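Please, structure for the following, as tokens.
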Amino acid sequence: MTAESLITILIPAYNNTETLIHALDSIAKQTIASNISVIVSDDCSPKQIDPLLALQYEDTFHGIRFFRQKVNLGVVSNKTWLFNQVATKYFSFMEHDDWHLKNDMYSTAISYLEENIDVGCFFGNTFVEPWWMSTKYNHLCEIIPTPLDSHYMYNLNKLYSGDVKRTIIDGVDWTNKLTNSYSNESSPFNTSWSALVINTGHMRALGGFGAAYRISKSEAYSLNIYWQEEHFCCLYLLASRFKFQLEMEPSIVRGYQPTAYSKSLSHPARKMDQDGAFYAFYKLAWILSKQYHNEEVGYIIRELYRRCHLIGLTHETEATNNFLEVYLPSVKEHREMAVYMLERSRKI
């Protein structure tokens, strides 16, 4: 066991022990496994995960800790709890139905982040497990085509010429690509949480993961929306201050195993109208407008409102107007953007 832990891998676990062990096996194969700290949080699973199965990796990693929550926190709240335990310079979430294609992902990501202090996030690429692999055969997708079928990749490499593994883009460019991807499915610019490596200090400087920028529980209930989603809002915050390092060839396989209650449409929280992203981006634009005043942040705010428009305000409650008024920016330029977006969104 080495003296230094370089990165903490956070695993929000729920129910599926088989995929958790598969994910841990995957992390154990990383070239810097002995410098990795792992924290697993079982979110009060009905089918309790055996901690001994997770702790068997204690000698493989720098350290591994297992927690079982006494009550169900929810998908994002469990991640927030995990983030608050981090004591290393870098962190990453590992969805426990995902696994690694490359054994040097973390070492590569840390190298890039160490060399470029103005980069806040390594935005890794993902190979998406074909849905028929998980549904037809009902087991872990072990057979990965070689070469990888680009149809199942988030093709970050299509957006640029040259070696994307060495491409650093600023937050404005990253935001623009993500918004354009939302309106053009032929050019997907997305990834899995498992493919992200983030500078812990940068995230804390912006309030921390899942902090005040999120829709609150009371807001969610009054708006009748599901609130345990993050929508990459923390990355928009990072984009307002830092650059992103893109990866061309996928390092992560994004699985589709039913490991979290949020994926079950029968869960009571999922019976709410799914307008959560609209409100989340609207509130985040207000936060950025309140905190920062420069051209780059102004552009990101404009992109957030553009995403709101693309989503559309399709379900409103009695609390909607109050929410929209509370989070209407005081900065004239941003306020005008918000009003214009709302007029167009309500026509959808």
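Confidence is low (pLDDT under 50) at residues 260-273. The domain at 7-264 is CATH 3.90.550.10 (Spore Coat Polysaccharide Biosynthesis Protein SpsA; Chain A).
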